[in-house]
Amino acid sequence: MSYPPPADFPPPTGQPAHGARPAAFVRPEDAPGAVGSVVGMPSKPTIPLNKLAPEAALRRLELTIVRRLEGFLQGDHLGLLPGPGTDTNDARIYRPGEDDVRKIDWNVTARTTVPYVRDTMADRELEVWAMLDVTPSMNWGTEGVTKRDLGIAAVATIGFLSQKQGDRFGGYIMRPDSMRRLPARSGRSALYGLLRKMLSEPFVPDHARGSYSLTQGIDQLARTQRRRGLRVVVSDFLTPGDHELDPNVEPEWERAMRRLAVRNQVLAVEVVDKREIEFPDVGEMLIRDPETDFERYVNTGDSSARARMDAASAAQRERIRISLRRAGVGHIQLRTDRDWVQDIARFVLAYRRVASMLHAPPQGVAK
């Protein structure tokens, strides 16, 4: 799907649209709110960190977990007797004076010639990993918030919903040329630190090239995190150059989502801007794709042309919805013109009724 410039500003070339009044060009750094994201690359987040934790609104909600998750088998509460868990965790370098020598993993130590210890995990621990797509199409936003920052808000909300004693939350930031890993840690301070790093991640300029696509990002998430848990994929799920509208034709990322859902409970958070679905009547307008070289002027004053564009956009979103349903993952659609807390709360309440059927594992795979 292509992305139009805002209704109140001229095309990015600085020339007024055909038939419109001439207007002074507004520099991206001077544009109010998220409007700067459509006349140029945004320079700062549109949601501050202190607005990402609506704890009071979420205090009575709890995210339903229905799949068998490693480390989530013995209940939600601490036992009467304190002590370490019995499940082994990843190996790490031995720190003299801090680690117990009885925890040294001699197999890893022999292979690396460096002392390593292997921690144990509490049986109640749930591990959540969220992958945030920050490709150029996520910089778009016309309602005071960009899709990228709305995705970070979704990560924050799900992080607070899924957090219990001892649970860990980690993240990946997917850029066109790399994947940045944010280690999983427990506690609210660690979650705030992860959100701060996501907000401060440099913006990706338009037409940036790289080897990473959404498919490769999901596959890497599945390969590198082998321990079962909850996985959250935040994206607009738009593939550059994919103009297919037939829901029977699978998007290239659907197979990767299906593989990720074999061992994990997966939530897909689709972020959408209002002007991607409802095209405004602003006369002739330049439509451009920030990830490809596509550019074209369209007369939005023509009601029939506007209706065809709205229908194509609706068909595109319906194809994404059907693909995510086929992959057996939970699906939340968030829009920049709506309250994301209410949308997620509404989803969580409805999720309790359908989660067990939606996340049924494939035939032959243990639940």
Automatic annotation (TrEMBL):
<dbReference type="InterPro" id="IPR036465">
    <property type="entry name" value="vWFA_dom_sf"/>
</dbReference>
<dbReference type="Pfam" id="PF01882">
    <property type="entry name" value="DUF58"/>
</dbReference>
<protein>
    <recommendedName>
        <fullName>DUF58 domain-containing protein</fullName>
    </recommendedName>
</protein>
<feature type="region of interest" description="Disordered">
    <location>
        <begin position="1"/>
        <end position="21"/>
    </location>
</feature>
<feature type="compositionally biased region" description="Pro residues">
    <location>
        <begin position="1"/>
        <end position="14"/>
    </location>
</feature>
<feature type="domain" description="DUF58">
    <location>
        <begin position="90"/>
        <end position="318"/>
    </location>
</feature>
<dbReference type="InterPro" id="IPR002881">
    <property type="entry name" value="DUF58"/>
</dbReference>
